[in-house]
Amino acid sequence: MMFNKITDALVTRMRDIAGAGCVYTTPGELEKYSHDETEDLRYYPEVVVKPQTTAQVSQLLKLCNEYHIPVTPRGAGTGLSGGALPVNAGLVISMEGFNHIIAIDERNLQATVEPGVITEVFMDVVAAKGLLYPVDPASKGSCFIGGNVANCSGGPRVVKYGTIREYVLNLEVVLPSGEVIWTGANTLKYASGYNLTQLMIGSEGTLGIVTKIVVKLIPRPTQTALMLASFATNEEACGAVSAIFRAGIIPSALEFMERRGVEWVIAHDGINFALKDGIAAFLLIEVDGNNPDVIFADCEKINAALEEFNCQDVLFADSSAQKEELWHMRRIMGLSVKSNSVYKEEDTVVPRAELPALIKGIKAIGARFGFESVCYGHAGDGNLHVNIIKASMSDADWNKKLKDGIKEIFELTVSLGGTISGEHGIGLVQKEFMPIKYPDVNLALMRGIKQVFDPNGILNPGKIF
Ligand code: MLT
Ligand code: ZN
Fold first, then answer.
1. Collapsing DSSP states into helix, strand and coil, what is residue 184?
2. What's the CA gap between 2 and 70, in Å, rounded?
3. Is 334 in the pocket of ligand 1 (CB under 6 A)?
4. Whose CA is nearest to atom 8 of ligand 1?
5. How far is the CA of 336 from the centre of ligand 2 (A)?
6. CATH for 223-329, options being 3.90.1750.20, 3.30.70.2190, 2.30.30.20, 3.30.40.230
């Protein structure tokens, strides 16, 4: 794809559209937009614009489409697959200015929000009304709802409540041509032709820019119980996961943490947690509802299921402070692991009964290639985040072996019936592995869809394919 550079004349047009104060061009201003949370990758855009209205986004896209300028849409920059990196320079359209909760419709249990609203801010506003918006990725305190839509985000509560896919009803989207559409209807059902709303979710900013989001809300459960179960082996912890569902329980969260991850959280954050010898892995299990007796009975059933997998110990959080501490440990695991060493993170997902085989295989691949891995994640969804750690490996070995090791991990994942990303997206860094999962015919269909939406290929080029 041949793109043009942004000329001074085009910068002037962008200033006319968005206002001079919303157009940024100096290296200092552009720095923040040259990276996201993906490793240490850096790509500078030529210009950043922070539009405030749908009409401005429309005019900017129309202009860039006419002049073949690459456009990278950007949320909060918390992505882990390089999806917001302007790899072809050009324009970054930052959605920071779209930070309003437009309406909360308590009659229909729906809300309309702009994409630059911070996920946790929205969750707190609806919680104050006794409602739940359960899509809470680890970065909920800083990520934007728009970025969550683009990446089909999940987080710990997907196991009971589903990904953001389950909550988005309708989207206002600006197409690369500048046309503005609503993708569907504000209804819980939709059997009216191809579902463009669902197509936009997870399209990683390659098909259009979302400017309004209508989401479903649900009544908020009043009670939770949280337990931390410890196991002598990874396989036993992973095996217990599907047994919990077979016992008739759908927990509201079911997270896996490897010992090394907990050690690094303790080192990074100084949290007070007594890590006993002989423990290899933990499951953090939450049950929610409105009836304490039912929750208690569910916990008993979970306990019985865990015992069959040689569970060493179960800690029941007995206060909201202790629940908060345990959740904090899980939520900062990614940050703690990554602050320890050069790393590469993968986001494997398999049908959950295959988790023991997945973790065993990942460790065997690591042993063969000579790298350590730290795994944690949303075990209830079969979703393991695999952090491959460089530690003392030489640069030469790291560069030589890493790609082959990742390829084997993904081949294993796919052979177990899984896929190469559960919730972090493909973006820039996983795209070379797409053929492991998809035959040419699938990739051709995806490219065809891209071509229909964006014939000039200006929107988030270099991502997914
Ligand atoms: C998590 O579950 O902690 C997130 O997906 C982030 C991460 O893996 O770093
Ligand atoms: Zn995650």
1. coil
2. 9
3. yes
4. 334
5. 14
6. 3.30.70.2190
Please tell me the CATH code under which domain 336-424 is placed.
Answer: 3.30.70.2740
Class of domain 101-219: alpha beta
Q: Which atom of ligand 1 is nearest to the CA of 424?
A: 5
Does ipTM come in above 0.85?
A: yes
Q: What atom of ligand 1 comes closest to residue 387's alpha carbon?
A: 8
Q: What is the pLDDT of residues 140-158, one digit of tens each?
A: 999 999 999 999 999 999 9
Question: How many A from CA of 424 to the centre of ligand 2?
Answer: 7
Domains 101-219 and 223-329 are alike in CATH topology: no
pTM of the model: 0.97
Does the Cβ of 379 fall within 6 Å of ligand 1? no
pLDDT in tens, 344-355: 999 999 999 999
Task: Give the domain ranges of the chain.
Answer: 101-219, 223-329, 336-424
Q: How far is CA 48 from CA 26, 38, 66, 74, 82, in A?
A: 9, 20, 18, 10, 17
C-alpha dihedral, 91 to 116 to 170 to 381, nearest 10°: 100
CA dihedral 12, 14, 20, 26 (to 10 degrees): -80
Residue to probe by mutation, ligand 1, list 337, 424, 429, 430, most atoms within 8 Å of CB? 424
CA 422, CA 151: separation in Å to the nearest integer? 10
